[in-house]
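# nightly structure sweep
# worker-07 picked up a monomer target from the shared queue
# config: single-sequence mode, recycle default, output format = structure tokens
# input follows
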Amino acid sequence: MISITTKNYQKLLAASGVLLTFYVGTARAADGQWYTGSLVSPSGAEAHAGLIGIEPYYSYTQPIGRFASDGTSHPQHPRQQTFSNSTMWKYGITDHISIQAHTVVNYGWERGQGHSSGPKFGDFPVDMVWRFVDPNPKKYIPAFNLFAGVYFPTGDYNKLQHKQDSSGTGAYVFRMAITEQSTYVINGGHALRLRTWGWFRHALASTHLEDVTSYGTGNGFHGRGRPGMSGQTGFSLEYGLNHSWVLAMDLARDWANGSRIWGTNATGKHVDRIASSSGDWQIAPAVEYSWSPRFGVIVGSAIYYAGHNTGVKVSPQFAVNMIY
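# output follows
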């Protein structure tokens, strides 16, 4: 929805699967606790072969300022606003291996910059998930999962009518992650689930750029572009009030190297530049409610409270978790 050169490469990738990385778990604690999964943390492979997980996820992003290169916050006008739907599709191939994908649709607008020319389909991430260590709560052994996949460049990025139509990078991007999940029983029988994770993303090749693109180029530009490396680390806590109600909280750090473009502009001048790197810290409190082990909802908000070369944002969101 915005140029990925300086201020929103992370957001494009996150909205394609990592903001993202907001997958839903199906595991139930030994004491009967039900979960939907927190807003940001990735879950592991499905518990059993044949299970299908579907999670339509909706978010609205409202910038309230901007972090400068030194980390100080400043007012921002006009403000880019975005409404997104990301639906997670997950299938258990075996009891330890799953495949998952996200379909992402964005719609953005900014005063003085117009609206998207309709809902825009984003880049399409597909991952294989392998649970290579099974949990054993009695021996305090957590579950460990390995993710490996690719973003397919299905979002608009090249020859755009205007920047609001930007929804992808145009590049195949490899990504991988490792996650850990453990559950404890505290305070007289309440379940506390901990997740930690780390994501890494790297473009596999550059892409052709012409005219207005998601890399911030203008009419008359001809050349190539390549997204910078990016990643995320974080942890989440989910505290069960009873078997249906859960309080959740994520804390995550996002980072992205600047994207590079090279070619010639409308005047024939050679251009070769790398955008500034960016990073942010986000906290995402939420409330989960599950009316069965297979169905539930989560409502909360991600708050980006620190960073550099990125927006100060608030993003309320909700999702419905369905397991078949």
